[in-house]
Batch of 3 targets.
Target 1
Amino acid sequence: IPRAVVRDLHTGTDAARLMSLLMLVFSVSPILAPLAGSLVIAAVGWRGVFWAVTLAAIAGVALIALYLKETRTAAERVESSMGSALRAYGVLLRDGHYLGLVFIAGFAMAGFFVYLAGSSFVLINHYGLTPMQYSLAFGMNAASFIAVSQFNGALGERFGLENVVRPASLGCALVRAAMVAYFAAGGDQLFVLLALWFIASAFMGVVVPTTSVLALERHGAIAGPASALLGTLQMAPGAVTMTVVGYFADGTPLPMVTGMAAGVVIAWLLTCVTVGWRRPPGRVGGLWG
C-alpha cells in the first residue's frame, strides 16, 4: 500500500525519491530490530518480544487512523472487488516489461535473503562473532543500502531512471562475482566478505527502489494490485534461492556467496533484456558518456 500511495501522488524522479525514503523506513528494521530485541530479552525475557511487536502494531493502526488520508480522488477510484483485482492481475501478468522490472529487483533481493538465511551460521559459527557483533555487521550492510538509496531521486533526474538501473545492476553483479572468486580461490577473510557485501548493498540501494518506480509507472490506474503483485513476486526468487542454497550449505562462506551472486547475475541479465544494455539514443551526458 505505501508504494501505491507514492504512485498515486508522484511519478518519475519524485517517485524515486519518495520510494527511497520508504526503503529507508523499511530497512531501518534490520539495523534496529536485533539490537532492540536483545535489549527486550535481557530486560523481560523472550516473551517480551511478542508484547513489543503487539504494541508496535497498535501504534501503526493508530497512525493510519489519525494521519493516513486517502490519496486517490473519488473520480479516480475504481471498483474494489475480487473480480477487479483478478482482472488487474491478468493485465499485469501479460505485461512483460512490468514483470521484467519486478524480477530484476526480485533476483537482486534473492541475494539478500540468502545472506539473511545463512549469515548467522557463517558469521557466528565459522568466524566466531558474538550475537551483538553479528547484529552490528548486519546493520552496516543495511546502512549502506539506506544511504545510497537516498541519492536515487537526484541520480534519476540527472541521468534518467533506466540509465541508473543499468550500471547499478552490473556493478552489483561484478562485486558479488568477485566474492565468489575470492572464496573459491581459498580466501577466508571476514573483512573481505563484509566489505564486498557492503559495496553490493549500496548498488542494491539503487536497483530495488528504482525498478519498483519503473514497474508502477505505467499502471497508475491499478497501482494497488500492481504494488501487491510486485511485493509478492519479488519474494519468490528469494524463497527459491534460499531453498536451493540450503542443500549445499556447510557453514562456510562459499555456498552462501555463490547463491548471492547467482541471483544478482540473473537480475543483471534481466536488466539487459528489460531496459536494454545501451542508453536511449539522443540522451547526452548519461552514465554511459
Target 2
Amino acid sequence: MESFPSLLFERLPGAAQKKPEYPMDRICAALAQIHAVQIDSPFELSTAFPFDDTCMIWLPTFEDYWKNKKHIPEITAAFATLAPIAQPLFAGEMRAQMFSRSVHVHCHGDVTPKNVFAGESGAARFFDFNNAFYGSRMADVIDGALEFSLAEKYIHLANFARFDKFVEHYSIASPLTLEEREDLGKWRDLIGVIKFTKEVRVMLERPTENLRRKRALAIAEFLASVPRG
C-alpha cells in the first residue's frame, strides 16, 4: 500500500465499566501487558515528540493561567495552593532525571475508565490509542491512578485511596524500579498539575462546565493533602 501504515481492528465483545468500583487487578494487569511488549522485546521507536514536549505545553500554561487569568475564588485558591508544588517541575534538569530513571515503553496515553472494557472472559482490555506515545511508563501509571481516582463523570464517587491501589496493582503485574518508586511523588505532582491545568482550560472555554471545576478542585485538594518531606 505504498508504504503507508495501517491499523487493523478486531471486534471484541465486552462492556466498559466507567463507574466504580473498578477491578484494579485486571485493569492494571492489562496496562502492564501493553508496556511489556516493549520491555520484553525492545525495538526502536520514534522520539520525535517526547513527553517533555507535553510538559512544556502545559507547565507554561499553568503559569499563564495562574498569573494572568481571573478565576472564580475556588480556582484562584487552588492555583495558590498548587503554585509551590508546580514550581520545582519547571526545572528541565529535574524532569530529564525523572525520565531517565524510568522504564521507557509504548504508552497508551489516555488511561481512563472509558478506555478500558471487560471482555466476556472477564479480562480487561484497553482501546483508543489515539494519544499513544513512546516514553516513561510512569506517565501512564500516574495518569491511570489519577483518572480512576476521579471516576470520570462520577465525580461524586471520587476516591483518592484508589491512587495507591492503582500503583500497587500495577506494581504486582510489573514491578516498579527502585528509582521509579523514589520519584513517585514527583510524577504524581507533574501529572497532577498537568491534569489540573487541562481541566481549567476547559472551564475557561466552557464557563458553565461544572464537572471540570469539580475535577480541578479534587486534583488540587489531593496534591495539597500529600505529605512532603
Target 3
Amino acid sequence: MSNAKKDFRVDSLGVQIYNSEAELALSAASIVQKHLQQILQQKQSAAVLFATGNSQLKFLDALTSSNNIDWSRIICFHLDEYLGISANNSSSFRYYLRERVEKRILPQQFHYIEGDTLEPLKECDRYSKLLTAQPIDLCLLGIGENGHLAFNEPTVADFNDPYIVKLVKLDSVNHQQQVNQGHFPNIESVPKYAFTLSIPIICAAKKIICLAPGKGKAKVVKQLLEANITEEFPASILRKQSQANLLLDTDAASLINS
C-alpha cells in the first residue's frame, strides 16, 4: 500500500487513495498477487471470489497480465448472476468473467452460478455447498450506486443472513445502474431477479479488496465512510471488517472529509 497518496482507517476498514484509476488498478493487482503468493506458500490451492462491473475492468486487465501467480492452483467463484440469463449472453456475469478472467488465466476451476437453471433453489444449494467446501482466501468487490454489495440491495440485505446464496428482486436503482453502465439497452431488458452471495459469506473471506474508482462513486464513498453502519446501505458493513481494504482514486475520494 506504500504508493497510496493517503492510507488510513475508518473504524476497522483500511482505506487507500491513489492519484488515478490506473494507479489504483496496478496497486490492487500487486496486492492481490502478493496475497495469493503467500497463500500458495501455505497450501495447495487458493479460493477467490470475483466481482464484475466497470470498476473492475482496469484492475482485471492488470491482474490477468501477471506472470507471478500460479493460476493452475486458483479456484474461482463469482458473487452474483442474473436469473434466467444464459452464459453466452454478453450481459451475463459468466460471460464477463469467462472472457476477462478465465480465458486469460486458465485457473484450476471456475465455478459459475448457472443463471439459466430450471431449478433456481437447487442452484442456490449447489453453489452454497461449493463455497463452503473451502475457505475463501480473497474476495474482490465493487460498490453499487445504492450501496449494494453483489446483489445485496438495501431492500434485502441482511448482516446476519442465514443463507449463503439466495435469490433476490433487484431494485430500480440497480436496474438503472445496469443500463447506465451499458450492460443492457433499457430498463425493460434488465432481469428482475438475480442470485447473490449473502453478506455473511462475503465478510467471511480472509481478505477483501473493494475497488471504487471514479467521480461517479464519490457520493457512495462518502456515505460508506461517514454515515451510519446499516443494512439500508449494505456496503457500510465493510467498516466492521479488519481484513478489508477500500481502494479509491482521488475522484472517488473527492467528497470525503479526510
